[in-house]
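quick one, 388 residues, struct below
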Amino acid sequence: MKLPVYGAPDGNAELRAYAALAAESYAGDRDAFERRLSAFRDGGIRVLRRGSRCVAGALHFDFAQYFGGKAVPARGLAAVAVAPHLRGGGLAREFLHSWLKEACDDGVALAPLYPAAQRLYRSLGWELAGTRVTYQFRPADLPARHGKVRPATDDDEALIRDLHARSRSVANGPLKRCPELWQRLRASAPDLPAFAYIAEDGGYVLYALRREPPGVRFRIEVRELVALNRPALHALLALLAGQRSVCSSIQMVLAPFDPALPAIQPDHICPVHERLEWMLRVVNLSQAVQGRGWPHGMSAKVAFTLEDVMLPANAGAWTLQLARGRASLKRGGRGGPRLEPGGLAALYSSRSTPAELRALGLLSGPESQDAALAAVFAGPAPWMPDFF
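---
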C-alpha cells in the first residue's frame, strides 16, 4: 500500500530515518535522538515523504499554554528537519502547511515554537510572541535569609504541580506541561545530577549541577524556581547561595518582571546569559478565543478582518465581543482593521500593541478600534520558562 505524502512514521525504519535527519540538522547524536523519540510512539512525530524516502519531519508536544489566566489547548512544534541536499525546494513549507491543517482539524488552538528560521515561520503565520531569558548570577549576589526548606520526595509531586499551576496561570505564555515535559524537567543523569527542594512557605526549586573541570567547582542550572510569596522566594535563594564555596555561577530562567530579580540583581546591570524568542501561531481562531481568559469588568466590541491563506477557516470578517470576563466571536463585522495571522498571534500573546503591529505591517486599515484592541489584549509581558 502506498503511504501518504505526509503522516506518522511507518515503523522503525522511518523513525530512524527521521532521527538521522534531525541529528544532522541540529549537530546531535543519532543514537541519542532515537532514544528521545521512544517517548513519542503515541503519535507525536510526523514525516514528509518523497516516494519511499523520508525527506523531512518534526515532533510535537500536546499541552496547554496559559493566556489571561486560562490554559489554552496548544501543540508545540520542535525539531523540524529537512534533508540537507533538498533544502530550498519548498519541502519545509509543504510539511508545515500539512502540519498546520492537521493541528486545526484536531481542534488545537495555538502552536508555539522556538524558530531556527524566523522568515520561514513568519511566511506561514507565526510571529514573535514572547521571550525565554536565562540570567546568570554569582552565588554571592543571592540573599542569604534562610527559611524552611526541605528535600522534595515522590509524595510532593502533586504539591509541585499545584504550585506550578498557581504561579504560572497568572502569566501569559507559560505551559501547562504534558507528561513528557515534566519528565524532561525532572530527569537526572550521571554527569548532570538533579535535585528538588520544597519551601514550606509555598514554593520549590528544581536544579542540576554541571561540573566545570578541572577541579571540583560547578555551576547550578536552575530548571525552575517557583515562589508564591517573599519568604518562600528568599528561602529558596538562600538554599542556592549556600553552595557558594564550590559553585562558580547560578543560571536561571526568570519572567521579565520576576520578583526574584530585585532580590538578586546587584546593580543596574542585568546579567543575561541567554535570550531566546519564541513564536506563536493561532491555529483555530474560535478555539483560541473561547479558551483564553479575558479582562473582568470590561465590555468591548471589536470588528476585524483576518487574512489567513494557510488556514482559510480562520479567514474573513469577525466581531469579538467582551462582557463580564467572557468573549464571544461571531462571523461578520464592518469598519474594523485587517490583521495578518502573525499580527493576531503577537496581539493575542500581549507582546505587541496595535501601533507596533502597524509599524510591522501586520495590522492595516482603520485605526478607530486600535484602542479597544489594545485594551482587550492587554496583559503581562509574555514569557515561557520551558524549552522544547
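The longest helix spans residues 91-105.
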